[in-house]
Design a protein that fits this description.
By secondary structure, the protein is α+β, with helices and mostly antiparallel strands. The protein has 4 helices and 11 strands. 21% of the residues lie in helices and 27% in strands.
Length: 242
């Protein structure tokens, strides 16, 4: 049995009904748990000797608004030129504050993701939970399990508006004290609402309406087509020949 398969079996046996889902893709394991079980599962993952995920590598928020919508052509029509392009349109991020989407009813819009590392077993694991209420996304804090989560949770709160219940000092960490909104939400305008500059006449920093024009760069979608399969095969042949 491979190490990954044995880890999945242990996760299923340890978590039981707390495990909402388990997937394996590209050699990476992702499990899903309910928000009510978030802190309890974190403690089990850290303290179980067969798992020992003692290190929290990262914690981040995710906004699934517009997930699955691609502005690139389909894989059958995709071009082989360039890495990105400037686009115009009315998709997420390309609107002003007054024209932003409102009252979007999207279940499981916001999620929190943990990236864990077991130094003892040399294994990694991704853990995800979906916030039950998109209007006020709340999940329990895991700072009592991994103290390093303190600043990670503050970042997710600042940029996504996700509230971590039980956090000892939940404040903004990257944006200004008077910042309005959460900049990484998909319904936040990419050009922002205001810009800041130093006014030499007033000899102070001033806020003014944003003056730049929106131009969005859409990254190329990585697809598992024949080009990547051939590259992987050539890489494997090169390793075998060495």
């Amino acid at each position: 049995m491979s190490p990954t398969a044995s880890m999945i079996e242990r996760l299923q046996a340890l978590l039981g009904g707390k495990l909402g889902g388990c997937t394996q893709q590209l050699g990476e394991v992702t499990i899903e748990v309910a928000p009510a079980e978030w802190a309890a599962v974190a403690l089990l993952l850290r303290d179980d000797p067969e798992l020992s995920f003692e290190e929290l590598v990262d914690l981040c928020g995710v906004d699934y608004l517009g997930y699955g919508q691609s502005e690139w052509e389909t894989s059958e029509q995709a071009t082989g030129k360039g890495y990105s392009r400037g686009v115009e349109g009315a998709a997420q991020g390309r609107f002003d504050w007054d024209g932003r989407p409102r009252e979007v009813d999207l279940p499981r819009r916001f999620a929190v993701v943990l990236h864990l590392l077991s130094l003892r077993h040399n294994r990694r694991l991704r853990v995800r939970t979906y916030c039950p209420d998109q209007g006020l996304p709340v999940v329990p804090s895991v700072t009592a399990v991994w103290p390093v989560a303190n600043w990670f949770e503050r970042e997710a709160f600042d940029l996504y508006g996700i509230v971590f219940d039980g956090h000892p000092d939940l404040r903004r960490i990257l944006t200004d004290y008077g910042f309005v909104g959460h900049a990484f939400r998909k319904d936040f305008p990419l050009i922002g609402n205001v810009e800041v500059r130093y006014d030499p006449e007033r000899q102070r920093v001033v806020y003014q309406p944003v003056s730049i024009e929106p131009r969005v760069l859409v990254p190329r979608v990585v697809r598992e087509d024949v080009r990547y399969q051939q590259a992987a095969a050539e890489t494997a042949d090169a390793w075998r020949s060495n």
